[in-house]
Amino acid sequence: MFHQRTDLTQLNTAVEQIRQTLGSIIVGQKNTIDFLIAGLLADGHVLLEGVPGVAKTLSAKLLAKSIDASFSRIQFTPDLMPSDVIGTSIFDPRSASFEYRKGPIFGHIILVDEINRAPAKTQSALFEVMEERQITVDGHTYLMDEPFMVLATQNPIEQEGTYRLPEAQLDRFLFKIEVKYPTLEEEIGILLNQHQRKLEDELNAVKAILSIDQIKACRSIIKALHVEPKLIEYVAKITDETRNNKSLYLGASPRASLAMLNGAKAFAAMQGRDFVTPDDIIKVAPPVLSHRIMLTPDKEMEGLTTSDIVAQIIQKIEVPR
Fold first, then answer.
1. For labeling, which of 45, 171, 268, 316 is most exposed (least CB within 10 Å)?
2. How far apart are CA 247 and CA 39, in angstroms?
3. What angle separates helix 278-289 from helix 306-316, to the nearest 10 degrees?
4. Which residues are CB-contacts of 91 (< 8 A; sequence separation ≥ 6)?
5. Rounded distance, CA 25 to CA 57, Å?
C-alpha cells in the first residue's frame, strides 16, 4: 500500500514500470501510454481515436493487463442493444421471479471497441455508468466496483455503418487521444520488435504491476496534491475562453475544468511531484478540450480543427508564474 509522501516515489516507480513494460511492446506510442496511465490514476475514461492498425485496442488491453483487476471487452456493432451492455432481467420459473443478469459493463477495465458503430439507444446505456459509476435497471441501482474505467476506440475515417457520438457522451471522457501513424524510425522499431519476439505472445509478456488497493491509494494521493490558487484561476480562464471564442459554436462545461485539474494532478504525480505546474495544465488541455468543443460552420469550412483552436487559446492566455 502507498501511504502519502512515501509514496509519490513509489507511485512514480510503478508508473515507470508500466511505461517501460508497455513501451517495450507498443513502440512509438509514449504519449498514448502516458495519457492512458493518467486517465486511470485520475479516475477518468479515455477515448482512443485513430485509423485501423495503430495499436489502439492493443494499448487498452496491455494497460488492463498491467493492473490486477477484471477486464472485459464489448465489441460495438449496429445491432447491439442496451441490454447487451448493461444486462437484463430474466424470468426464473423456479422462483417465479425476475433475476438480473449483469452485462459485460460490470468490471474494472472495460474496452469498448469501435464505440461509434452502435446507435444512439445503445450509446445511452453508457451515460449513467460512465458518470455515476452505477447502473439502474427495473428500479434497482447496482454500484460499480472501484476502479471502473472505460477505454473506447474509434476510427475517424470510416463512415460506413458508424454513428456520431452524442455530445453528452463525449463529455464523459476525461481524455480523447489521437493515435497517429508512427514515424519511419518508429515503424522500423515496431517491425524489429515483432520479429525478435517470434512466437512470444505480447499480452502474456505483461504482468500485473498495480493492485486495486494500490490504485485507490494512488488516487487518494493525487487528490491531495497542492494546487496554487493562480493555477486554478488559469484552468478556469482557459475553459471560459472556449465559451467566448468566436471560432466556437459550443464551449466547454465546468466538467472540462475539473477534468483539466484532475488530469494535471495525475501528470504531476506521475513525475513524482506533490504540486501542479502550469506545464501540467498545458499538457492536458488539448486532450481534455478538443472533444468537448464545436467549431462554427465557417471555421470548419476553413479546415480548422478543435485542436487548432485549443492551441490558440493556450497561446492567448497568460501563463501564471
1. 316
2. 29
3. 150
4. 97, 98, 99
5. 13
Distance separating the N- and C-terminal Cα atoms of the chain: 35
C-alpha span between 242 and 317 (Å, rounded): 11
Q: Options 3.10.520.10, 3.40.50.740, 3.40.50.300, 3.30.2280.10; which CATH number does 1-224 get?
A: 3.40.50.300
> Which residues fall within 8 angstroms of residue 285, CB to CB, at 6 or more apart?
238, 260, 310, 314
CATH number of 225-321: 1.10.8.80
Q: Please report, for the chain, the start and end positions of each structural domain, with discontinuous segments joined by +.
A: 1-224, 225-321
Which helix (H) or strand (E) segment holds residue 271: the answer is: none
149-154 vs 87-92, strand pairing mode: unpaired
Q: How far is CA 230 from the centre of its chain?
A: 27
pLDDT tens for 204-244 read 778 889 999 999 999 999 999 999 999 999 999 999 999 99
Q: Please give the sequence-ordered ranges of beta strands (E in DSSP) within the chain, or none if there are none.
A: 45-49, 67-68, 71-75, 87-92, 97-102, 109-113, 134-137, 140-143, 149-154, 173-178, 210-211, 248-250, 294-295
Domains 1-224 and 225-321 share a fold: no
- Lookup: cell for 54: 495503430
pTM, full prediction? 0.91
3-state secondary structure 141-158: EEECCCCCEEEEEECCCC
Asked whether residue 255 carries a pLDDT value surpassing 70, the answer given is yes
Between the alpha carbon of residue 130 and those of residues 44, 103, 127, 278, 282, the distances in Å are: 9, 15, 6, 28, 25
